């Protein structure tokens, strides 16, 4: 068994790319975004999900109808139909919040907290989020 372990490990690593390699394959959603501040750390608005949304990949959020969503950025250009934000918890429990994208059409903005007037270049681990997120 020990002789086959390096071979098996090589096969597994070639079939399932690591996070750095997988990240390169994901197209950037937009080059620019609108934020409330220079770090996109202050929420623009509070919205409520009008329908369920299942994330197609790790850059997006799973959102369930009725959940409160905090909007931190609004993508511009080719990604303008997507917003970035966070949702607290999940459908069945109270898991930690995480950042991600979602279609703007699935939420209703209920409360504007701060105007989105700052143009920011998208960068970071997920296109559209600063490195520190």
Summarize the structure.
This protein has helices at residues 5-15, 19-25, and strands spanning 32-35, 45-49, 68-75, 82-87, 98-103, 107-112, 118-121. By secondary structure, the protein is of the alpha+beta class. Strands 1, 2, 3, 4, 5, 6 and 7 form a seven-stranded antiparallel beta sheet that branches.
Task: Describe the 3D structure.
The protein is α+β, with helices and mostly antiparallel strands. The chain has 2 helices and 7 strands; from the N terminus they run H-H-E-E-E-E-E-E-E. Strands 1, 2, 3, 4, 5, 6 and 7 form a 7-stranded antiparallel beta sheet that branches. A hairpin with a 6-residue loop joins strand 3 and strand 4 (82-87). The longest helix has 11 residues, at 5-15. Residues 4-23 and 125-133 have low confidence and may be disordered.
Keywords:
133 residues, 7-stranded antiparallel β-sheet, 14% helix, disordered C terminus, alpha+beta
User: What is the helical fraction, as a range of percent?
Assistant: 10-25%
Low-confidence stretches: 4-23, 125-133
End-to-end separation in angstroms reads 42 Å
**Computed CA radius of gyration, to the nearest angstrom:** 18 Å
Order of helices and strands: HHEEEEEEE
Topology:
Elements: H1 5-15, H2 19-25, E1 32-35, E2 45-49, E3 68-75, E4 82-87, E5 98-103, E6 107-112, E7 118-121
Antiparallel strand pairs: 1-3, 1-7, 2-3, 2-6, 3-4, 4-5
